[in-house]
What we know:
The protein is an alpha/beta fold. It is about 30% helix and about 15% strand. It has helices at about 20-40, 55-65, 95-100, 125-135, 175-180, 200-205, 220-225, and strands at about 10-15, 45, 75-80, 80-85, 110-115, 145, 170, 195, 210, 245-250. Strand 2 (about 45), helix 2 and strand 3 (about 75-80) form a beta-alpha-beta unit.
Amino acid sequence: MSDSNTRPTIPIQIFENFTDASQFVAQKIVRLIQQKDAAGEKTVLGLATGNTPRTLYRELIKKYQQGEVSFKNVVTFNLDEYYPMQTDNPGSYHYFMKHELFDHIDIKCENCHVPKGDLPWEKIGPYCDWYEEKIKSYGGIDLQILGIGQNGHIGFNEPGSTKESITRLVNLEEQTRLVNSSEFEHIDQVPYQAITMGVQTILDAHEVILLANGEKKAKILAEVMANRMESSVPASFLHHHPRCIFMLDPTAASLL
Ligand code: GLP
């Protein structure tokens, strides 16, 4: 079969454990920054939140503290933020990034972009367009780091998101609110909406690494690998990306 919907295969690298995977990605990011620095260019990273990248960020902080890397010429764009959401809310992705990474490295504040969750409703559309343009103004994202939701979302591109989607306001599935409620005191505090980069925004990154660990991710990863590229499993659109790889621990890979 060779219709355009038939999936090519995303390469998968399985590590002995998730720390090894995170260390490998941290090393790759450091090398990328060093190469870009040597060429006198900025490094543009696409960053994710959630439990998945925590170890990666710890490793990056370690490498910065050991003098291996500077983030002075690094620009970051985060995938998503809840809406509505204040930046100082401990459940916000602004708060997460500040505490898990930005406060511990020498990155410049003005180079860190996390979608704003505190805008009045009528400003969201123009702001999302601005976010897209801002990414393009830096020549696009060099390396996008992704996690995956148990329902196959990437960023907050929930099932139903199209391949062409760009940065926009989206509704969250109840299952997503429930899973993410652990970051809040009560599920009632989890917003019903979010601003997220689109599937197309993610596919436009020059390189993509999806990290996943634990048995809770095994089923959806098997679906991504078995499915054709379709909206019901947004991560399956990554089959369209020529430089995308999944880096997994053995339990996440157990159903592949
Ligand atoms: C969250 C985020 C995603 C993240 C995913 C997995 O809802 N919006 O960007 O990748 O869900 O989260 P975790 O890494 O905690 O499993």
